[in-house]
Amino acid sequence: xxxxxxxxxxxxxxxxxxxxxxxxxxxxxxxxxxxxxxxxxxxxxxxxxxxxxxxxxxxxxxxxxxxxxxxxxxxxxxxxxxxxxxxxxxxxxxxxxxxxxxxxxxxxxxxxxxxxxxxxxxx
Length: 123
Known about the structure:
By secondary structure, the chain is mainly alpha-helical. It has a domain of 65 residues. Strands 1-2 form a two-stranded antiparallel ribbon. Helix 2 packs antiparallel against helix 3.
């Protein structure tokens, strides 16, 4: 059951074209929102994302690496034949708290929803 809608109102067509342009510009906004989230919510000093543009559909992908815990934390190693009487190292290895906690994911989701609402609303 196919149907066709024909609109002859120039103002409505301009409104659709403006909305289509704003949706097309989301590719540039996603990395900016992603970096802002890392700076402000995750408190990263050096936020980083990797961007890739798809081939056929020209879609853009923004990704980042988020470690389960601090990058400095290392697993404990066995002594491998060394004496266990040595003085323990005082080097700080990082916290045990996961970096990507559930409320941070919710904050990212809220930022992305707000970005989409700004781009797709009727004006």
